[in-house]
Protein: Thioredoxin reductase
Amino acid sequence: MANELKITEEFDIAIVGCGPAGLAAAINGAIRKKKIGIFGTDFCSPKLHHAPHIDNYLGLPELTGDELRQRFLAHVQKMGLKINDNKVTGVYPSEGGFTLQSRDKFYQAKAVIIATGVNTVKPIEQELDYLGRGVSYCATCDGPLYKGKRVIVLAYNREGLEEANFLAEIAAEVILVSQVKERDAAGIHLDERIKQIKGKPVGILGEMWSTGVKLEDQELKADGIFIIRDSVLPDQLVPGLNVSNQGIEVDRHCATNIPGIFAAGDCTGMPYQLSKATGEGQVAALSAVKYLDELKNKAKKELANWDRGRR
Structure:
């Protein structure tokens, strides 16, 4: 896949998520001299920000959640690391590791750490059944497939409104069903060609292919449906990832069932504790570094054997 795409940047380790687990992983990976890419939102760890006080983080008592959050971010900045606010919508195996897709940009990484926190996303009825069959999470990626057709955008954030504007330049008709609060939509001017309909989406309609969206009080028909949220379910973010009702399944080394992909923090399940998140972030980073070093050593041995075979 990577050979066919224009890669924006390459990393040794890409970290998806910038909460305590992701930042701890980034720091420990950087200390081991690996090139780190951190992908997160424009406001890292709102959960920690809203905590009125933190009493159980060893050595740092009587801090507010935001005070501790600011210390985490300052540590990351001191390490020379930057947070990329492009949302990752897919992680796919490719030559040399993995390709991370973020709208119309692609990044390459030899190893990936998932640290997306607790996922509160609840897919609407039959959403996952029709994913890839008329339902998409990325308008920039799949919008061109619906040139001259009718599409529905289910927007749960500002990005959803922006994606609706993008689709208005391609599709014959764009129907927007927005769940975005007015204050969060400030400053965005919707294309006059977009038709807005009020309502709460409850399910996807279809047979072999999706045909529309069911709202609480009506049904809407369309050729394509775009669902734009802040986060993507882990097993949709990484196809083939083992996920239980507790979270992403990992071993004691924070390794998932996919070699080269690790997970840390609340996304791996309870307990949802700050120390557990930062500890797993460190373990995931050390495991990723070990994984990369083993790959490097294996490649050296194979090269040496090949060289001896030529003599």
User: Anything to note?
Assistant: The mean pLDDT is 92. The domain at 128-228 is CATH 3.50.50.60 (FAD/NAD(P)-binding domain). Residues 156 and 229 are 5 Å apart (CA to CA).
